Description:
By secondary structure, the protein is α+β, with helices and mostly antiparallel strands. It has one helix at residues 6-22, and strands at 47-52, 57-62. It has one domain.
Amino acid sequence: MILFGEGSLRNALADFGAHYHTERNYQGLDNDLIDPSGDIVKIAGSIECRERLGGLLRYYHRAT
């Protein structure tokens, strides 16, 4: 990843922090999310992929 200045570094860190705390499963918590959003309990619908940091981080979720 190539960062161009402090602004792009802050943006990358914010994206990583959001992914780490709200989208990434944790082995130590029985594969649960630390801070889940309200839409993770859906069991019907198509699966969508959300990408962060240009596709380096991916999160799969049900379509709303």
